[in-house]
Amino acid sequence: MVNLLTILQILFSIIVVSLSTYSIITSDYQLNFLVVFFLGLLMLILGIKEFQRERKVSGWFHIGVFLFSVFVSIQIFL
Q1: How far is CA 78 from the centre of its chain?
Q2: How does pLDDT run across 29-78, given as a tens digit for each residue?
Q3: Residue-level pLDDT at 42
Q4: CA 38 to CA 14: how far, in whole Å?
Q5: Residue 69, Ramachandran bin (φ over 0: left; ψ between -120 and 50: alpha; else beta)
Q6: What global pTM score does this model have?
Q7: Of 8, 10, 12, 69, which is the most exposed, with the fewest CB atoms less than 10 Å away?
Q8: What per-residue confidence (pLDDT) applies to 45?
Q9: Element (H, E) at 2
Q10: Burial call 1-37: b when 16+ CB within 10 Å, e when fewer
């Protein structure tokens, strides 16, 4: 059975790749804040999965990257 975190990981990965591909093809970089935001959410999911595997250092690193990327995406949006 597929885990909910795995489904979210795949969903956020698809969103990040598709938005990045769109930005590269069209040279329209107005959606970069969304790419960074969804990449941060992907890092959050990876961090939670690392905590479940009891790899705390890697989990905290992913959570830190999540917080930083959400901060950056908000700064880009404003």
Answers
A1: 19
A2: 888 888 888 999 999 999 988 888 888 898 899 999 999 998 988 888 87
A3: 92
A4: 10
A5: alpha
A6: 0.82
A7: 10
A8: 92
A9: none
A10: eeeeeeebbeebeebbeebbeebeeeeeeeebbbbbb
Tokens 């700064």 locate to 75
How far is 18 from 73, CA to CA, in rounded Å?
17
Tokens, residue 43: 């890092």
Whole-angstrom distance, CA of residue 37 vs CA of residue 16: 9
- One-letter amino acid for residue 62 of the chain: H
Radius of gyration over every alpha carbon of the chain, rounded to an integer in angstroms? 14
63 neighbors 47 (Cβ within 8 angstroms): yes
Q: Which pLDDT does position 1 carry in this prediction?
A: 55
